[in-house]
Write a structure and sequence with these properties.
Protein name: NAD(P)/FAD-dependent oxidoreductase
Catalytic activity: [thioredoxin]-dithiol + NADP(+) = [thioredoxin]-disulfide + NADPH + H(+)
Low-confidence stretches: none
Mean pLDDT: 94
Structural class: alpha/beta
Keywords: Flavoprotein, Oxidoreductase
Distance between the termini: 52 Å
CATH superfamily of the largest domain: FAD/NAD(P)-binding domain
InterPro entries: FAD/NAD-bd_sf, FAD/NAD-binding_dom, Ferredoxin-NADP_redctase_2
CATH class of the largest domain: Alpha Beta
CATH architecture of the largest domain: 3-Layer(bba) Sandwich
Largest sheet: 7 strands, mixed
Order of helices and strands: EHEHEEEEEHEHEHEHEEEEEEEEEH
Helix content: 25-40%
Shape: elongated
Length: 326
Amino acid sequence: MAEDMGVVRDVVVVGGGAAGLSAALTLARARRSVTVIDAGEPRNAPAAGVHGLLALDGVGPDELVARGRKEVLGYGGEILDGEVVDISRTKDVFEITLRDNRLLHARRLLIATGLVDVLPDVPGVREQWGRGVVHCPYCHGWEVRDHKIGVLAMEPMELHKAFLFRQWSSDIVLFAGGIELDTEQRAQLDAFDIAVVGGAVERLEIDDARLTGVRLRDGRVVEVDTVAVSTKMVARTDLFAGIGIEPTLHPSGGAFIETDAVGQTAVPGVWAAGNASDISAQVSGAAAEGARAAQHINANLVMDELARAVAAKAGTTAITERELSR
């Protein structure tokens, strides 16, 4: 039997990254009882630093989370390390079960579980992920500036990544694989002096844990310092199917949780923020979305409490009037 932790919290946040902690901080400061459940699987764990985050540029992912946790706890929020294995709903209360059999109840639920990057099936990509292999020019472009950057293109739309990385380096190589480039695409690549290498990629060349090149199936090795790839970004949604949350497919092949402008899903009482609902969000954007969702969760709770208070007041007044009329 699961261990019932008693009190019904105002909000349970599933996910302890930038979005989840930012939301919890806002809710705790609003004097809400809020619990963050963190499975400890951040998407940016392989990265050396978080970039583009105002006043914290370059901070390590672990340090950012540690700071965020300290702030949430400082305002009375609660953080539980654990994995959610089941979520159900009884009337207006969500029931959240953790793998260690702890059981939590909450009036509102925020999904901030992030996403999983499905990497290209090329040997060496996973081993170098977050170091020699990058995906986002705005996250990593400055760090790989003036490198010789190889862009692995698995489909025509990924040419756009080569054009973007050209902003940070004049030495870009597009590994086109089996893509048939049309006249316009070749003219664009030529205009940016982007070299094109045809033929299937066999693997990445790694020497003493450092990326050194890209090996083609015909035996050629093209030297590069960095490889840029596109990933299929898939939000973690399976856990929430039982309460009606379904993934929405993205044109890129990924999936996300669809919300309105303030993070509310189609399921009453459930919000989503960060990469779970916006697969392109960087840490700064995820944190902002978490704070925004939290503000609207709090407002939603306030209006619910107001309606109950009005009904209770009306009931008390009716009883008093009946007593006076006796």
